[in-house]
């Protein structure tokens, strides 16, 4: 009888260990999502305070580079009615030369890309296969794409959840429309 009890106790300990691991994983996912939410909240509040494209240029770049540890950020707009030097916001006169789907996206596209495509997006050469997230900036008739690039080929791939990026794209689109008027 004691072997049956010992066997059941062992099975319960294994089960408890599995449940504990699953719970720890769920807590870690919750912590990461909370961290992402706090970053997104801070980013959006800064976007709401932006008074011009020069400020938008800096806010987008610094917020994305600092939190997401990416290498390059460019916001491509179909039309830009702004005077002055912008480092990370550009008008895309020939979007097909930059990326074949630059202004045709309905939701964020994450992919590993060729070095040549990366160069067209960011004007920077990289040695390994990089990855990009292309976030559509669409509101009313306004079109744009936020390109976020990483030298890490695994940073942005088809399995990356794009919920936060899609939402961020919607907010940026509304800020751009406000700044254009």
Structure description:
It is a single chain. The chain is of the alpha+beta class and 181 residues long. It has 2 domains: 1-49; 52-180, GAF domain (Beta-Lactamase), CATH 3.30.450.40. It has helices at residues 2-49, 53-68, 95-98, 115-122, 163-180, and strands at 72-77, 89-91, 109-112, 131-139, 142-150. The protein has a 5-stranded mixed beta sheet with strand order 2-1-5-4-3, with helices on both faces.
Q: In CATH terms, what is the architecture of the largest domain?
A: 2-Layer Sandwich
Mean pLDDT across all residues, rounded? 87
Secondary structure tally: strands: 5
CATH class of the largest domain: Alpha Beta
Biggest beta sheet summary? 5 strands, mixed
Overall, the morphology is elongated
Number of domains: 2
- Kindly report the CATH topology of the largest domain: Beta-Lactamase
- Estimate what percentage of residues fall within beta strands: 15-25%
Contiguous runs where pLDDT drops below 50 for at least 5 residues: none
Task: Tell me the series of helices and strands, N- to C-terminal.
Answer: HHEEHEHEEH
Instruction: Output the strand order for the largest sheet.
Output: 2-1-5-4-3
Gyration radius (Cα, Å) is 22 Å
Structural class: alpha+beta
Query: Helix count, per DSSP?
Result: 5
> Percent range for helical residues?
40-55%
CATH H-tier superfamily of the largest domain = GAF domain
Distance between the termini: 82 Å
């Amino acid at each position: 009888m004691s072997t049956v009890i010992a066997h059941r106790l062992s099975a319960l300990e294994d089960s408890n260990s599995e449940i504990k691991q699953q719970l720890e994983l769920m807590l870690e996912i919750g912590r990461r999502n909370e961290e992402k939410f706090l970053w997104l909240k801070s980013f959006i509040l800064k976007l709401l305070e932006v008074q011009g494209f020069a400020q938008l240029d800096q806010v987008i770049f610094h917020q994305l580079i600092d939190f997401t540890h990416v290498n390059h950020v460019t916001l491509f707009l179909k039309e830009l009615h702004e005077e002055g030097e912008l480092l990370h916001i550009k008008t895309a006169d020939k979007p097909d030369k930059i990326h074949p789907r630059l202004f045709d996206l309905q939701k964020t596209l994450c992919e590993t890309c060729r070095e040549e495509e990366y160069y067209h997006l960011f004007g920077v050469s990289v040695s390994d296969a990089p990855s990009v997230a292309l976030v559509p900036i669409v509101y009313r008739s306004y079109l744009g794409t936020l390109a976020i690039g990483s030298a890490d080929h695994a940073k942005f791939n088809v399995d990356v959840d794009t919920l936060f990026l899609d939402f961020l794209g919607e907010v940026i689109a509304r800020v751009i429309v406000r700044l254009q008027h």
